[in-house]
Specification:
It contains three helices and 19 strands. It is mainly beta. It has one domain: Porin (Beta Barrel).
């Protein structure tokens, strides 16, 4: 067990050494754009890191984490490549675009579209189609026209992204991991009604649904997306308020995975929806300071997993969360950030651990483990979680590299705390011991990753 901790510490020392030996240059120019070939932009990165848990849990799991759930074990999280043509933000006539983005690594365990390479391997290292979409700008109806996007695409909801190069922190918020969708298959429109108001409307197959088929969706109903964005009502302030509504969990009639309410009556999953309401506010105070806030409310009408887990035999579940971000940019090489968050899971339905290669998608798709008993996912009951993360981004100046490549190193410290637990042994959330019992309500991590990309 200790050798895993030492391996993680060695990875940290190596990454920190890279950062410490490279001198900072405050007068460096902003990073150059991604390489272009005509109107087409190419980008890619590799991201690897380690999340060191000071308790060294016996099951090697950082509970309450998804993408950084492996304790004291270095992982190659993402190897990602994309080609795209962006819509011209100043377009006044017809315009078109597309994006094709592939991903390989341990992060791919989570955002699969159902039936799209999602249950192909037990390995934590998997392939995923991160995005395959087309877009268009139509100069119709509204003064600013309408943008359309269709295909398979990451959710537009929330502050954080699956693409790690777009996030400040290595670890994700509870909201991103458990409170919002990860991917959609469908179509949405953004109507530019005025210079500061956008109206959003879309239809899709639900969170991570692909197509309405046995393989691609876990129910027979669609979902809707709607909301609005307010852009610069005061300079540098944006507000994005989106709601997503539709049946999410499914019933596989070829298995014993049935869904019941508290009275033991099997539920019709197509008539029980998951509603998600999310508001994200971003304010760039000045060239150095950016502030952001995200709040979410989730209500699942079904809110159950297999009734073989007595803790989860209930009807309906809700969750509420808020996250606050502050980022200070010192210079082109170094920036500092903090994130404070709280997330209440009122039935223990949303927050869990999914260490196996297929665990997360099998729970999402309501499919039993194959072989039986191989699913290592677990929940700890209803609780409220708090997370405090502080970290930095360091971009060491490097010699001129092909494709404008660069390096970002992201060390961070994180404290997770849980309270209000019920119906669990010892009422604890974290640090599972060799006997299978959680032993503490606090979890301390030192995490670090490095992103090399172009």
């Amino acid at each position: 067990m200790k050798h895993r901790f030492l391996t993680g510490a060695a990875a940290i020392a190596l990454a920190w050494g890279l950062a410490a030996t490279a001198p900072a240059r405050a007068d460096d120019a902003a990073p150059p754009p991604h390489p272009m070939v005509g109107p087409f932009m190419f980008s890619g990165h590799i991201d690897g890191g380690v999340a060191v848990n000071f308790d060294d849990p016996a099951n090697h799991v950082n509970f309450g984490h998804a993408f950084t759930d492996s304790a004291n074990s270095p992982r190659m999280n993402q190897l990602m490549a994309a080609v795209e043509k962006d819509l011209d933000p100043a377009a006044t006539g017809l315009d078109w675009g597309f994006k094709a983005q592939l991903m390989y690594g341990t992060d791919s365990r989570f955002p699969h579209a159902f039936g799209f390479w999602d249950l192909e391997t037990h390995s934590p290292y998997q392939f995923d189609v991160a995005e395959l979409s087309a877009s268009a700008h139509l100069p119709i109806i509204w003064s600013g026209g309408i943008d359309l996007k269709g295909g398979v695409y990451p959710t537009p909801i929330g502050y954080e992204y699956t693409d790690s190069s777009l996030n400040f922190f290595y670890t994700h918020s509870y909201i991103f991991n458990f409170g919002i969708p990860l991917k959609h298959t469908g179509l949405y429109t953004v109507s530019h009604a005025t210079s500061f108001l956008d109206l959003w409307l879309g239809v899709d197959t639900g969170n991570q649904g692909f197509v309405w088929s046995k393989a691609g969706d876990n129910n027979n109903s669609g979902a809707i997306l709607g909301g609005f964005a307010i852009n610069n009502p005061i300079p540098n302030l944006t507000i994005l308020a989106l709601a997503h509504y539709g049946p999410q969990i499914g019933y596989d009639k070829n298995t014993s995975f049935n869904y019941f309410n508290g009275a033991g009556v099997r539920q019709d999953v197509n008539r029980h929806a998951l509603a998600i309401f999310d508001v994200t506010t971003t304010y760039k105070l000045n060239d150095q300071i950016t502030l952001a806030n995200e709040i979410v409310f989730d209500k699942d009408d079904l809110g159950v997993t297999n009734c073989g887990s007595p803790l989860l035999c209930h009807s309906g579940a809700t969750a509420e969360g808020a996250a606050f971000y502050g980022i200070y940019t010192l210079n082109d090489q170094m920036s500092f950030g903090a994130r404070w968050e709280i997330f209440r899971d009122d039935q223990g339905f949303f927050v869990g651990a999914f260490p196996g290669g297929e665990d997360f998608l099998r729970v999402e798709r309501a499919k039993p483990a194959v072989p039986p008993g191989s699913n290592s996912a677990y929940f700890v009951g209803k609780a409220t979680y708090m997370g405090l993360t502080v970290g930095m981004n360091y971009k060491p100046p490097l010699p001129a590299l092909p494709l404008n490549a660069g390096l970002t190193i992201r060390p961070e410290l994180r404290w997770d705390h849980a309270w209000g637990l019920a119906n669990t042994i010892g009422n604890k959330a974290f640090n599972k011991n060799a006997a299978g019992n959680n032993t503490t309500n606090d979890q301390f991590l030192f995490s670090i990753d490095a992103i090399f990309g172009f």
